[in-house]
Every structure is written in structure tokens, then in C-alpha cells.
Amino acid sequence: MEKALVLDAGKCTGCEQCEVACSMINEGASNPAKSRIKVFNFHDEGRFVPYTCTQCDDAWCMQACPVDAISVSSDTGAKMVSDALCVGCKVCTIACPFGTVNYNPASGKVIKCDLCGGDPACAKACPTGAITYTDAGATGLAKMEAWAAKTDAGQQANA
Amino acid sequence: MSWAKRILRVNLSEGTCQEEPLNMDWANQYLGQRGLATKYLASEIDPKVDPLSPDNKLIIATGPLTGTAASTGGRWSVITKGALTGAIACSNSGGFFGAELKFAGWDMVIFEGKAPNPVYLLIQDDVAKLVDASDYWGRTVWETEKGLKAEYQDPQMRVASIGQSGENGVKFACVVNDLHRAAGRSGVGTVMGSKNLKAVAVRGTKGVKVDNPEAFLAAAADGKAVLAENAVTGEGLPALGTQVLMNVINETGALPTHNHKDVQFDGASDISGEAMTVPRRSDGKPNLTRNGACFGCTIGCGRISTIDPEHYTVKDREQYQKASGGLEYEAAWALGAATGVSDLDALTFANFICNEQGFDPISFGTTVGAAMELFEMGVLTTKETDGIDLTWGNAEALTTLAELTGRGEGFGAEIGLGSKLLTEKYGHPDLSMSVKGQEFPAYDSRGIQGMGLTYATSNRGACHLRSYTVASEILGIPEKTDPLSSDGKAGLVIAFQDATGAVDSAGICVFTTFAWSMDNIAPQIDAACEGDWTVERLLEVGERIWNLERKFNIDAGFTGKDDTLPKRLLKEAAKTGPAEGKVNELGKMLPEYYSLRGWTDDGVPTNETLDRLVL
Questions:
Q1: Which of B46, B82, B520, B545 has the fewest CB within 10 Å, making it most exposed?
Q2: Mean pLDDT in residue range A85-112
Q3: Cα distance from A159 to chain B (closest Cα, Å)?
């Protein structure tokens, strides 16, 4: 079953454990500057929002790549960058509407979320459940449940 | 690994920035941050130096776990000779600045001398330079941080800076990072201001490696699980922050009120963590917006708050109507109970000003409390205060003084002296609720006996963070002791002091110790760092640090006579609550403490003790 990362900003405290875990797995060092997931602090509103690649089905980055360095993982559906093929032209970073593909000056290649091969480190590291890895066909389930709880409450009380 | 093994030495007089290797012999003896930087400071300055002279140095230091995956691994400290105290100072902060410094590849920065004109230090990975700060001098912390990020078009830059209070010589100025986290106590920001150093701006992309990644991630994960399952770190602190304590300590009869004249405050529940969650009438929102975490912290005790938009402090002042760092327990107590003010929005506003202008709410609130007592006695009148009515509980007096103190104007300039100098000036030094010149935090030592010994012996002046025996005496962590008894407290205080010294030198937060024992901490340090780091070794490091700090203070001119408390706590019994009739029994605890420490009857470490600790 295809799975997807679900990000619930309401639960995020902005601790950046996800960024540390992502960079530890992918770069071998705790280094948020190289994290594929980022947490944004909207300070004046008191909101923290984690954000990363949504793994578009028909992915702009993949379409734009002139050397076919981005491919789909048959296991996870993740769009994966091949370091062997990537020439660091950065066209994918322009093509991505969400800004989730970025150039790594240290390696000369682009980096993006690859779902850690189906076991995302960010989701495991998140202390508040703001990042989960669940059924890609039911990413709205928790929200639906929350609304269902409100919608149905009155009716059942009346019945 | 885990240490970057590089330090940056900045000579402000000469305008130079030089890289040096970290002294690894010292790192192995003092671990990092508080301990290691104190070793550098003690080796490089004359302890008798005037804190505000160019001969004092100021060190910004991280620990080996700063920037790693260890929970709470974002701590950093400012180490110097304190402007408020004249004693060794180490003020610890969270936020994201410390981790960023480590990501840039630096363990610490040593500032020496004094810049001829205001400057800030810019660090971008390996490149460090001093930059003219004339555009930022005279600006607030908030303006400086936002301005630097805009100037460099780098929202990911992290900034630690001083506000106007640090520039103006307010004795208890802080260094503030990430808008509302602070190296808060002992006047470390005052020292920074005396050096004409406005800010440190840092951006790091190199990252932090650990010695044994597999073992480290496993140990860090074990630690996080322990924090999550613990009632204090997993539930109480995320929900109510440190403010979970306000009602608890008040009921214990240990909430210092009205400059320690009382030990319980009628308005405590109005300014408590619970009160911060109650929706207000104007906009239907509670004071508390949500909890927020420092770098790497899986506890998330930080408060993010807003002020009632209709409150007198913020009407027509949009900049204060946004969310920012809200009340922690110590600030709520000092701004509230110490002054008798029970207006939650006024306290939140005063706290915002403390962050914006960079001064310590504990020393500020306590000093206002002392001024209010002088006002009650008629020693101070509206003539001296420029018309401000310092009656107990006057919220407008508190918020006005916060703004004046930040800018160093009017009677605010006198509040900025701190309670010791203020009460001396007006002929009543006994009314300064301080030790070694530093004001008490939020626990009355008549109702929590161990805290009396904690305050009296703290190397940086009165402080709860050097040995938080409240954990044992009130919360029962790691085991319950009787808060009203002084029996056995000497040993308890020493155990807390030594363990805390190690924690403060590791790069993690002391709040983890509500849940973690040293058995949880040692494996994380051991896996992150080269060498074998056992519980025993860490406790020895803690004891070594304590004695090094003590030796610095003795060389600076302090003696055992300074290990005391204000007369009020030793002679005037608590009037209400469980501690009614009690004074602090310091006289019973101190000789035992000296003896257990291996110090002489006068409180001087013996040669045997110094030799044993390789000092």
C-alpha cells in the first residue's frame, strides 16, 4: 500500500527534531541546513509549520530534469534523485511549485525528500505526532474524524 | 567528535578574529560549555578585574551535545565575570542560536578587549568578521534581530544581541537570542555592552557529527522515550510550562511575596499557568497561544502568548499585540508576586519589554519589589520616583518602570542598579533580597529549606538553577525530602550542584533532569564523544567545575561570609502557610556543607580537595 507523509501543523512545537533526523540519515551529520524537511516559525502568529515534498504524481521536477536524474521509486512512489546522473543544473528547483527540491552546494547535486525508502526518519523523530507516515489514500482521515465527532454529536444526543 | 574542536578568538580592541584548536585536555576535564568556558576564563583573566573593564572577557560556549539529536540539545551559555555580582557568571540559554554556532563549526567564541566603536560579529561557517554596528546601536533586541536577517536576506540566520539596557549599563542586562530566549542572569549583557559588542549573527551549514552515530541515536531515542513517559516532562511542562508551579509553590507557602515579607500571594491563581489558558472577554482567546520548543527539545515547555488587545499596555501599539515569548514561572513570580501585581496582561507586557530590551525579569521584578517596600516605608516618595506611585500591586507602575528601565530613563535608571545598590543608596541594604548581589528567584527558603543553602552557596549569586532541590523537597524527584527540615540538605544540595554542573556543560537542558538521571545522560555523552564518559566521571566533572568556580570567586575577593542570606530570611519567620513560624536554618546546614565539600571551616577548598580534582 502506498503511504504518504502527513503534516499536522497544529501539533508542531518547532523543535526541529525532524530536520536533525533527516540530515543524520541523509548526510551523516546533524545539519538542518541540509534537511529535506523544514519547520517554519510564524513567530508573530505563534504557529510552527513543517513542510516537505508531497511526492506529486506527475512531478514537475521529474518532467523538468534534462538528464532524467529523477525517477519514481516502485516501492514507495517517492521521486528520487540519482546522484550519479544529476548534473546540478537546478532546473528542478525552479520547476517545483513548492520549493521542496533544493541545491546542495556541498555536493553539487540537488536534494529532496525520498521518504527514506519507506521508513521516514522525520516521522519517527517527531515527538508530538505532527509528522506521520500513513495510507496515501486516507491522509485526511484524522481531520475527517475530528469533524465527524463535531457533526454527529448533536444528532446522537437528540436520538 | 561532537566537539567542533575549534574556538574563535575575537579581539575587539584590535578588530581581529582568529581560529584556535580547542584545548582537548581541558575538554576531557570540563566537558564543554559552562565548565570548559569557565576553565578558559579563569586561566585568562585576573579574577579581581573590574567586570566592565576591557580586561574582562566574555565567552559564548556550546557543549558537545549542542546541535545533536539529543533531546534539548540546543543549549549554550555566556561565561564572564558578572556585572551584577562581581562573581563568576554563567548564563544559560536555549532557542536556536547555540546549535547554529555549532553548525558553523565552532565550540565557543572568546571576546576580549573593547571595540572602539559599536560592532557586531558575523559568522558564516568558517568566515568570521567584525562589522560596524552603528545602524543597530540604540535599537532593541527585536529590531536588531529582524534588521540583521533582512540586511543579509537570510531568514535562517540566528542572532544573539543586547538591547538598550545592555548598552546603558543596566546591571542585570541579558543576551537575548531568537527574540525571546535569554542568557538572563548576572548581567552578562551588561558586560557585552561594555565591550561595544551589539550582537552575534551566525549561520552554519557544516553540521555536527558524533563519535558513534548508531549508539548515539539509540541512546538519544531512549532518552526521548523517558521524557515522553514522565509526568513532568511529558505532560505538566508541555501543557502549562514552568508556570505549572505557581499554584503549587503558593500552596507550599514558599512563594516570596511583597519583597519576601509574605510567603503566599492572594493573586497567585490569577497569574498562574492555568490562568493563561482561560479565554478572555475581548477576543475570546486565552493568553497562551501554544507551547513552543527550543532546538531539539522534545519537552516543549516554552510559552507563546498574546496580550489582550484591549489592555491599556498595548492599545494602539500593534507591535505588542502579536504573539511572542510569554510568561515563564520565574518571570511571572518576580513581575507579579514580588510586587503584588496580579494583572496577567501587565505581567505579559512587562515580560515582552524585558525580552525586547534585554534585561532579566527576575532581578528587575525583585528590584521593583524592594523599591515598593521603600515606598511603603516612606523612604522613597513620588519625588524620587518622578511621580510613579509605587504602591504594592500597582500594575501601571510596573509596566512604566519596565519601559523606563529598558531605556535607562528616569527612575528606571535607578531600578537598573539592581536591588543591592538601590537599597544601599537609600540606606536599607537589608531589604535587598539577594545573595552576592543577585536577586532571589521564586522559592522562599523558609518554606523550602534546601533552597536557602542553594542560594547562599551558589557561585553566581542567588539562583535556583545551580541546585534545584525544589525537585526533591516539593516534587519528590528523585525522592521526596521534607521541605521544612534542614536535615540532610547539605548532601542533597551538593548532589544537585555536581550533577547540574555536568548537565550545564553538556549542551542539554537541566529540565531533562525531572525525568533523566545521570544514567540516562551518560550514554548519550559517551556515544557522542570520544573516550569513556561514565556517570562517575560526569559527577567528578561537576564537582571539579564547582570547585573551580568557587576558587575563582575566592580569588576575586569573596569569602565564606558571603555565603549568607538576607536577615529577613534568617530572622523573620514565615507568617502563613505550612512554613508558618519557620526561618531558614542556614547556620545548621552550612558547616556540614563545607565539611562534605572538603573545604575549610571558612569555606575554602583544601589543598587535598584541589589536588583530588586536579585543580
A1: B46
A2: 97
A3: 32
In a domain, B279, yes or no: yes
Taking the C-alpha atoms of residue B43 and residue B57, their distance in angstroms, rounded to an integer, is: 11
Side-chain half-sphere CA neighbours of A41 within 13 A: 23
Looking at the structure, do residues B185 and B283 belong to the same domain, yes or no? no
Cβ pair B327, B243 in contact under 8 A? yes
Q: Domain for residue B222, yes or no?
A: no
Closest alpha carbon within chain A to B225: A127
C-alpha distance from A23 to closest chain B C-alpha (Å): 9
Residues 185-204 of B with CB under 8 A from A: 204
- Which member of B179, B207, B293 has the closest CB to residue A31? B207
Domain ranges, residue A141: 3-158
pLDDT tens digits, B402-441: 999 999 999 999 999 999 999 999 999 999 999 999 999 9
Which residue, B391, B421, B438, sits at the end of a domain? B438
Per-residue pLDDT, A156: 61
How far apart CA B374 and CA B371 sit, in angstroms, is 5
Residue B201 zone, left/alpha/beta (φ > 0; ψ -120 to 50; rest): beta
- pLDDT, tens digit, for every residue of B500-558? 999 999 999 999 999 999 999 999 999 999 999 999 999 999 999 999 999 999 999 99
Residues ≥6 apart with Cβ < 8 Å to B42: B88, B548, B551, B552
Chain B nearest-CA distance from A83, in A, is: 20
Domain end: B438, B464, B488, which one? B438
Give percent of chain B with pLDDT exceeding 70.
100
Task: For residues B164 and B116, state if they share a domain.
Answer: yes
Whether B211 is covered by a domain: the verdict is no
Domain holding B449, by residue range, is 445-514+534-612
H helix and E strand count, chain B:
24, 17
Number of structural domains chain A divides into: 1
Question: Of B156, B209, B298, which has the smallest distance from its Cβ to A29's Cβ?
Answer: B209
Tell if the CB–CB gap between A44 and B204 is shorter than 8 Å: no
Nearest to B520 by CA among B69, B29, B70: B70
CATH number at residue B181: 3.60.9.10
CB B179 within 8 A of CB A43: yes
CB contact under 8 A, B292 and A48: yes
Give dist(CA B498, CA B520) in Å, integer: 16
Residue where the block lists cell 444528532: A155
**Backbone φ/ψ region at B195: left (φ over 0), alpha (ψ -120 to 50), beta:** alpha
ipTM value: 0.96
Q: Strand (E) positions, B163-235?
A: 175-177, 181-183, 197-203
User: Which pLDDT tens digit goes with each residue over B468-507?
Assistant: 999 999 999 999 999 999 999 999 999 999 999 999 999 9
